[in-house]
Amino acid sequence: MGHAEHGYGYYVKIWAILMVLLVISILGPTLEILVVTLITAFGVALVKALMVAAYFMHLNIEKRYIWLLLIGALLFLAALYIGLAPDIQNGSGTNWKRCNAFSDAQRARVVAEGKHAEENHPGISHFSVVPGDTDCTSQRWAWTPGFHFGG
Amino acid sequence: MAFQAPIATGRSATGIPTGRLAMWLLLASEFVIFGGLVVCYLLFRMHNGYWAVEASHTNVYAGALNTFVLLTSSLFIVLAHHAADAKNDTKTAVKYMLGTVGCGLIFLCVKAFEYTTEITHGYTIQSNPFWAFYYTGTAIHAGHVVAGMTAIYICSFDVAKGKHLNRVELTGIYWHFVDLVWIFLFPLLYIAK
Description:
By secondary structure, chain A is mostly helical. Chain A has helices at residues 8-27, 34-56, 64-89, 104-120; strands at residues 92-93, 96-97.
């Protein structure tokens, strides 16, 4: 491998860039603008991860077999997402309906009520409101904001 | 002369040293473990707006400190690799390896502080699905931190004697992966509100 040509300063420079990116990823979301949060939190995280993989793990000079190995693992992840997403992302399907399949408006209300409850009762760990479909009897999909594992 | 079993140190088909190839195979399986967790988290997170409120109870400063500590530890272990590989300087390599282990300890202390605060405030693994994901993800990650620290510490003894210097790179690759996982857990669990 050709690691030897990189000196101490090279790695410190990469670390310094990672530190700048860390600061950006913390400060960006404080603006509370969705697009800025997505870019600064997740976009920057992706850049940081790629930098660590490329320069610290030396993937930039690694043989292509390793790349194929990692791409294979990522394909399994994609298969997992594609396999699960239809059931989790949808609120209902053939012969099933999920109890906490809120509409956007309901979801916004839940968040607002939760924030209100937090302000009045600091330290609560869940919401007291339980919106959603009360006809649902399936425990498996009865996750609501007030749900506790094991009753 | 004592018999010594031959050791396959290189793979002729790929041209990659056996140890490094094995480490990447291990990491490919780890990709699916942590990736599966992150994928499931994202699927649920997108569907449960109220998790934003739950996420606001995690300590961003502690998470940021731990990110700083892990990124710095990654620098230390790559410098250890550089010292061992390029300069054959085992003394410096051991110094940086122990620095990495020290960073791992700081990470675990901060995590323990966080867990204590959260649990005493009533946010336990049973509170709701967000906290279930939070504790599962961070605890599995912390387990990997402990494994990495142990491996690096054990290898440092041989490196100090000038033996098995290639293991600095192998444990280093593993440690960087632990860092990579945290880079994604940090925005998911601490920043996205």
